[in-house]
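== Folding task for one protein ==

=== Format: two labelled lines per protein ===

==== Paired sequence and structure tokens ====
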Amino acid sequence: MTDTRGTGRRLTPLLLLMLAVCMLCCANVSAADRYIMIGDSYSARRSGTNYDGTKEKLTKAWPDYVAEGLSLSGKTIARGNGYGFVVPGRQFITLLNGIKSDKRVTKILVAGGIGNDYAAARATKSQIRSCMKAFGQKASKKFPNAKILYAGINWGTKESRQSYCRKRAEWYKEISLSLGWTYLTGTENALRLNSSVIKNYFFNDAIHPNRKGQVRIANAMLTQLRRLAAGTAASQTVKKSPVLLAKMKSVSKTGITVSWNKIAGASYYTVHGAKCGAALKELKSATTRLTYKGTGLKAGTYYRYRIAAYDKSGRRLAVSRVLHIVTAGGKRYTNCSSVSLGRTSATLKKGASLQLKVTQKFYSSTKKAAVHEAVKYVSDTPAVASVSAFGKITAKSRGQCIVYAIAQNGLYARIKISVK
């Protein structure tokens, strides 16, 4: 455990300048906040640490500078030596071990992941999402009153890998927002590696930020924390996550028509599909229409479709669940005709839960629906109320949201959740 409050040591001119800037920028941040700080590999030992034979010793790291810049009076706990969200044995989630549960903790500041998750694990987007979700669940259980703030600091990787990491940085932003975290915009550029940055802000190993690098990281976070406290952060906790609801519109023996809702900010949509059991392939590369008709299909056969929405820059805004739809004319299978939840609204207190009960009806009583995928549950505001894969809603914070229960052919029911 590292107590990152000021130690009364003599301050260097560089640190004095940094503190003056931070105190000016962070005047609106509550000094009573209690922080947990989690991050990629760093050391902040009072005896000093150096890397690769450099003369400089690191006695403080970014958590120390953030705490000083915020003038935090509450106790701050910092955990380092992490290696991203995914790498086994060095995951951020393991850094929560040994920290006692505390309802007084108000903020969990997490930094890094991008470089190390690539360099050591070649992590996929689904792996990153799963590990970030697990981290959030464990953090919420131990610190129920804390908000998670995520800084996409990209360190722990070499310059040659930056192209990959820049492309993947958007993953972390998208996932953190979908989980209801607050993303600190611009922090992903704090250590954007090039030869000049490596020379001035890293130890000789080009992996561990030196003292100036640690200050640079802290300042990137402090700028956004000040804006967040003032209510003008460039990227605050997402209010609504766009939910793309693709569904079966009609079927015949040789065709399937799929429709979907319009997504705000979308310039075009793509359609991928295939016969069930085959790999999805692109059927429409860019369409502005909200329907797609597949023709020349085989009767009584299951096909699957996936729709995605993109803005004009090519950034994906939302993706539908994978639909499984059977064509007409078969003797064995039928499609879902309606979905219901038995209620259209519910009011919960923070921390309370509600188990949804789904009822599906089908077009034919003499045929069955082959279950390729179970009902999928989605919340449009996970920060207000999250929903598990099994339909258990958990109230997170005050507000309202919509939770959807979506059958495998896309038909759905919705329930409005109000959290008091």
Summary: Confidence is low (pLDDT under 50) at residues 1-29, 232-238.
